[in-house]
Amino acid sequence: MTDNNRLSVPYNEPVAVECQDVRLTVKKKMILDGISFQIPTGSITGLLGPNGAGKSSLLRILAGLTLPDSGSAQIFGKPSGVDRLGVLSMLPDRANLPGWLTVEQWLGFAQGIYPDWDADKAEQLLLQLSVSTEVLISAMSRGEEARLQLLTCLSRKAPLIMLDEPFTGVDLISRERIASAVVSELADGARTFLIATHDIREMELLFDRLILMGEGKIQGIEDVDTLRRSGKSVESRYREVFA
Amino acid sequence: MSAFRTLINLEYSRYGPARFSKKQRSLTVMVLFSLLLLLGMYLPGFNTSQRSPFITVALLLWTVSVGISFLHMASFPGQRNRDWVLTFPHSRLTLLYAKGASLLRHSLNLTLLLYIEAIVLYCLSTFTGRYTPLPAGELIYTLTAYVMFILVLLPIAVVFGLLASLIMRPGRVARVLLLPYSILWMLPFILIGLLNSQALGIYDMQYTAPSYIILYTAALLVVGWPACYFLMPRIAVNGLRQMGERSIPAAASSKAESVRKPEKDRHLSARSQSPFVTLYKLDSSRLQQMEKHQAVRILKLAAPVIAIAMFYFTSGNLNAMQSAIRLPFIFPVLFGSFWMLLRNSFERKQLPWWLGFPQSRLRLLLSGIAAVWVTVMRVNVVLGVSAVVGLLAGLAAGKSSFHEMTQYVFWLFFSFLVYTLALTLALGLLQISYYLMRSRALSLLFLPVAFAVPLQSNLINTYMFPASYSSGWHPDWALLGWTALLGLPFAVCCILAGSKYYHLVLMQKNEAVRTKQA
Amino acid sequence: MEQSYELLPEQFQINPSLPIYEQFVDAIRGRIVTGLIPPGSRLPSVRELAAGRSVNPTTAARTYQELERIGLIVTRRGQGTFVTLEEAVIAEARKTIMRKAVLEFKIIAESLGLSAEQMLNFDKEDSNDRQ
């Protein structure tokens, strides 16, 4: 854990994600305005900010779905892009899995599509997240599908996991299940999580680092432990910055 | 390799037959088969010589394969599983090839059906003595030649459809390409008119003889396939990447516009008292959004010029004029009907909101129809006026006499009315679809309606216009009148019946779910 | 060994404004000292603790590190983490809790302008009155 204010990763610690002065303009509207940060391997970082802060755009750049206008985004030391999709597992915002398939069929496809698929892990997560296998995906409730999407992300061995709003429209029990599945994934320290959300309460105990984003800029990077030592919660810090 | 195969299977399952039960599948195939057979037998033009079934199938397959692949690519950016697909850890080219291969598989399924159909049609026609059978050797030669032609053509058709992702992209190149692209795609529909003309006798020309077909096949193989191979990486890089990015611009621009516009809109809605007018404005705002697309703008400027030129140049030639007066109104009417047919699948996400409006369902349907009708008619009026301008220019240039010119205008007016009626009937008839959603069996009845839509120009050519004109020809006003008299009340019934069951459109998805689980 | 106890009570509330591992350490120490978690019991793994409470695994790991530093728990390689069997350590932990409680008591007394003795005398009189 680093205690200095800039919270850059020490030289010897491997960096999972690094952005340097990333800028993105869409139709003359500034979406990302000089984003720079680092995420150390094994951390669980919350990317927090109000709607429209540019969180999704940032994650899309990291996943190689969008190209930044300028600046560099690196995943484990190499520029992000389509060829880095093998080392990251992304849960896109407001997207659906192929609705015409049953869960079982989808998992069969996923095994073929993702080279790093771990079928045992998928089995275990099916139980842990209580996802039933015979249902058509389009017939699932939002909470159920969110759990299946997370299952798809976590059943891969990819060392970086990015979740974009994993809780939108998800019921309380599903939220708790998702949070706890994320935790048990983290325990071995081999995975790095970057979670964009505006639902702070479910995740606040999970994060060890925060990146606060607003209006396309970084409004603060915090170490959660340091924050708590000074008597602040993630939520109170969030209010401080954005209210 | 196996990941590639999985990707193909995943893409294939998207529209795959496995989504329907065996019973539904065989029923659909049978209905489709007999329907096409009836069309082939009774629509003159499709089946006038030994080769015509095969030529027709080849042409039909081109449009349909391009269409399937085009629609897939065009709708892919809007699909909610897009981001998942795009984050699969495989290169864009692999994803694209998987898409292409799965679309090709669908086209091949269809080819199997249609080719058998063509053979059956050929057999039936020889039995009924429509034409004499070919000698066995030549028949086999013809069959093989056309099969090979189709098989070589299909991958090209699929890649051509995949180009949608480049064509639909905003940009100068795309704008220039859109017109030739859509003409190439719709070529068979344009050609059907020519094929039917017995004067030309294309079906019996030597250029459609099997030996020539083999030559074309070889040419496609040598030129078309390498072109496809060259195009695929470009579509993958430029098209698919663009799609990943598209969601943000769309969101941003709509946001930006909503910031700019509200003042004006509030003004409008405050003034318009009637909820129907408001609904109509809402429906047509969707179409206006499309009109803002730059490609459409170019087309709007180009179309009148093309119409003027066409009528100017053909005004000296009676035969050419016969074909010309049918042409201008076809495309807008076809577009309107297709839009009505496919609207619900484009707007699935908005439908629950629409149906939640505290308005009668009839009103909702009518406002939707009105929006499409007015848009199409606006285009057709412009085209008609341009045509008249072209004719007047022809008169001024001394290409036609005053008498001829008035006759042409008269015919043009008839054609205009015929297509107006066709549009009105098509928009009305299509509303029956909601009624037919009540059960699986009924929904199969929708197939003939759906088929009549793209084929309406053929129906019109067959029944509304004579096979050959003379300068003394008078339009058959009585037929038009009778069609209107019988058709319009029927269309109204369809709308009324449809409005009662409009809500079923929301149940569609769930129903598929239930049958799957059962 | 069967786990017939809870490491933390189910209704345990985390205060998100204070370091979480300290809250965990305090709570678990209290439960060991009072015997709710008997000596020699096997504790859940770091992963289980973290997943069960939806906290960062580092928090859980630090909780155990801290408890181990005090000597309340021992990690036996390959077997897991156990509550110590040494009475002396538990007694020492007991004293720590008492010291802390007394300290808080004194602080409150001071804020009221009273001494600890005055507070205790008040309690005696008060309970006599109530009877």
List the helices and strands and how they pair.
The complex is a heterotrimer of chains A (243), B (518) and C (131).
Chain A: E1 15-26, E2 29-40, E3 44-48, H1 55-62, E4 70-75, E5 78-79, E6 88-91, H2 103-113, H3 119-128, H4 142-154, E7 160-164, H5 172-186, E8 192-197, H6 200-203, E9 209-214, E10 217-223, H7 224-229, H8 234-242
Parallel strand pairs in A: 3-8, 3-9, 6-7, 7-8
Antiparallel strand pairs in A: 1-2, 1-4, 4-5, 9-10
Chain B: H1 2-14, H2 22-42, H3 52-75, H4 82-86, H5 92-127, H6 136-162, H7 164-167, H8 172-185, H9 187-196, H10 210-260, H11 262-271, H12 275-291, H13 294-314, H14 318-326, H15 330-346, H16 351-356, H17 361-396, H18 402-430, H19 432-436, H20 440-444, H21 446-452, H22 456-463, H23 477-500, H24 504-517
Chain C: H1 20-33, E1 42-43, H2 46-53, H3 57-70, E2 73-76, E3 80-83, H4 87-111, H5 116-130
Helix pairs in contact in C: 1-3, 1-4, 2-3
Note the beta-strand portion of chain B: under 5%
| Strand-residue proportion of chain C | 5-15%
Distance between the termini of chain B: 35 Å
What level of helicity do the residues of chain B show? Answer: over 70%
Question: What is the spatial order of strands in the main beta sheet of chain C?
Answer: 1-3-2
Number of beta strands of chain B: 0
Radius of gyration of chain B: 24 Å
Q: Output the CATH class name of the largest domain in chain C.
A: Mainly Alpha
Largest sheet of chain C, described in full? Answer: 3 strands, antiparallel
How helical, in percent, are the residues of chain C?
55-70%
| Integer tally of domains of chain B | 2
Q: If you consult CATH, what is the topology of the largest domain in chain C?
A: Arc Repressor Mutant, subunit A
Structural class of chain C: mainly alpha
List keywords for this structure.
heterotrimer, A: 243 residues, alpha/beta, Rossmann fold, 6-stranded mixed β-sheet, 4-stranded antiparallel β-sheet, disordered N terminus, C: 131 residues, mainly alpha, Arc Repressor Mutant, subunit A, 3-stranded antiparallel β-sheet, DNA-binding (chain C)
Can you walk through the features of this model?
Chain A has 243 residues and is α/β, with parallel strands linked by helices. Chain A has helices at residues 55-62, 103-113, 119-128, 142-154, 172-186, 200-203, 224-229, 234-242, and strands at residues 15-26, 29-40, 44-48, 70-75, 78-79, 88-91, 160-164, 192-197, 209-214, 217-223. Chain A is built from eight helices and ten strands. Chain A has a six-stranded mixed beta sheet with strand order 6-7-8-3-9-10, sandwiched between helices. Chain B has 518 residues and is mainly alpha-helical. Chain B has two domains: 2-245, no CATH class; 272-517, no CATH class. Chain C has two domains: 20-85, Winged helix-like DNA-binding domain superfamily/Winged helix DNA-binding domain (Arc Repressor Mutant, subunit A, Orthogonal Bundle); 88-130. Chain C has a three-stranded antiparallel beta sheet. In chain C, strand 2 (73-76) and strand 3 form a beta hairpin. The chains are: A alpha/beta (243), B mainly alpha (518), C mainly alpha (131).
